Amino acid sequence: MELARLITERGCSALTASANDDAVLRTNIADLDLLLALGGDGTVLGAAHIAVPESVPILGVNMGHRGFLTELQPEELKGKLASILAGEFRLEPRMMLQATLERNGKELSTYHALNDAVVRRGVTAQALRLEVSVDGHFLSAYVADALIVSTPTGSTAYSLSAGGALLHPSLRNILLTPVAPHLMPLKALVLPPEARVQVRLSGETPSVLSIDERIEAPLEPQDILEFAKSPHTCHLVRIHPEGHFYEHLVEKLSY
Questions:
Q1: pLDDT band with cut points at 50, 70 and 90 for residue 1
Q2: Which CATH architecture is the domain 2-89+239-253 placed in?
Q3: In whole angstroms, what is the distance from residue 214 CA to residue 165 CA?
Q4: Is 96-231 in the same CATH topology as 2-89+239-253?
Q5: Are the C-beta atoms of 148 and 246 separated by less than 8 Å?
Q6: Whole-model pTM above 0.85?
């Protein structure tokens, strides 16, 4: 690969792997100083699930369509490569979300998301019934197709298409957005970073927990999910000025 050759010519070592080859990346991630993710937002999300536990920063190069999480276009990379390898960039911390699944009083699994965690119905047209509480206080009994719990980073993803608020990525908020809620005036709700959201599946509709559209866990009636700010932080490499976010936003949301 030409990129790997250019990196080695500048005295650095390079490891190349397919975005789908998690085994190679997980085996070597602790030895990396920087992870270049060549692809779209999905590629960056996948890279985050591997890089974040080892605190490896990620530079996204947009080979896809929207590219909200990416920083460079392919034609920019070659000209910026020398300065990147010299460490001439800043790191932008992104809050992550923690989702904990509890069943019959036992904690089964814990997941971490950069974009969002979605409680959605399975292979059925029947709506979900979800009892939602925040910090131990009852909020609402949703009847909806899904409930999106997202970070500010994820506010530009599924949540935005469902009518959720758009949050600046530097914020540390938790965003709740129901999808097609029935007779429910309460739409998207922005919560503080210390909030703990509890969701109980009160109906019988088959459902699934989706984490960043990469991990799916089947859910059962009466399962309890707790969402909170993750102890992990994703660090994205940024080269453009901080105000570039607004230009980037207008560009990506324009058709």
A1: low
A2: 3-Layer(aba) Sandwich (3.40)
A3: 23
A4: no
A5: no
A6: yes
Residue boundaries of the structural domains of the chain = 2-89+239-253, 96-231
State residue 18's pLDDT score: 83
**More reliable by pLDDT, 254 or 112:** 112
Residue 243 pLDDT > 70, yes or no? no
CATH number belonging to domain 96-231? 2.60.200.30
pLDDT at 205: 87
Average pLDDT on 38-55 reads: 94
What is the SS3 assignment for 148? strand
Reported residue count of the chain is 255
Residue 118's closest CA among 43, 178, 190? 178
Q: Which residues are catalytic?
A: 41
Burial class from Cβ neighbours inside 10 Å (0-12, 13-18, 19+) for residue 238 reads middle
Q: What is the side-by-side order of every strand in the sheet holding 207-211?
A: 189-191, 174-179, 146-150, 116-121, 207-211, 215-219
Q: Which two tokens stand for residue 21?
A: 């080859």
Tokens of 86: 């010299």
Q: Is the pLDDT confidence value at 216 over 70?
A: yes
